[in-house]
Amino acid sequence: MVNYTVHTHRPRSDIILFSMSNRSSLTRYTWPTMQRYCNAQGYAWITSESPLDERHPSWSKIPFALSLIRDHFIENHATIPENITRDRYLIWVDDDMLITRPDIPITRFLDDFKNSSACIAMGEDIDRTFNCGLMIMKVDDPHKLARVLETVWDQCLENEKHEPLWEQSTMHRLWHQGVIRENRDIFILPIRSIQSFYGRDPAHLRWRDGDFIAHVSGIPIDRRITLASELYERLERTPGNTIV
Questions:
Q1: Can you give the CATH number for the domain in which 235 is found?
Q2: Greatest Cα pair distance in the chain
Q3: How many domains are contained in the chain?
Q4: Distance from C-alpha of 238 to C-alpha of 232, rounded to nearest angstrom
Q5: Is the full-model pTM beyond 0.85?
Q6: Contact (Cβ atoms closer than 8 angstroms) between residue 182 and residue 120
Q7: Distance (Å, rounded) from C-alpha 19 to C-alpha 91?
Q8: Domain range for residue 209?
Q9: For 94-122, what is each residue's pLDDT tens digit?
């Protein structure tokens, strides 16, 4: 059971962004960009400050997602009129991400994913695999999505509970083994199409003005906080909080 706070009580869509962190020194700069984005687009914004104890905190996205699938998509499925077609997405964002284009609906990036049979989309990583910092979960079939997430959780090896890439290591391994398959279970979005890396090499893959998400990852936490604060302050000085 995950305790969480719903910050947007009257969303205008079936799209939920969610995140979990106990690093307030970082989220003071990142989470306000998520709240502002959800307010602008009519999405729900949900957070928790209670990561797991038995595995690395990065693993917390799995039980958190399963709780939200149950609470908002399975138990409340009957409340959605059958004659209304909506995009239904549950979107995990790491605590070191900032949205820098709040004027763009996230669905603009998802046409190919929407038309695939996959239920989880992630951005391509620098090493041409995928990065689990942003996980866009299609909830057309909440039971299929829950099964994929439960497979990742249940098939975690002992060392993957605490090693550097955590659930991403498990997902990479299961992907290479064919347990979870590209375009059936997962979908990889081209690098910089939706998520760009901020403060990391190589330079041609870094975040630039006009990019949608800046992911301040893969660097020491003190440096991460410094870069997040600098970008946040730039957003605060920019009309519409939009860097184009």
A1: 3.90.550.10
A2: 50
A3: 1
A4: 10
A5: yes
A6: no
A7: 9
A8: 5-241
A9: 999 999 999 999 999 999 999 999 999 99
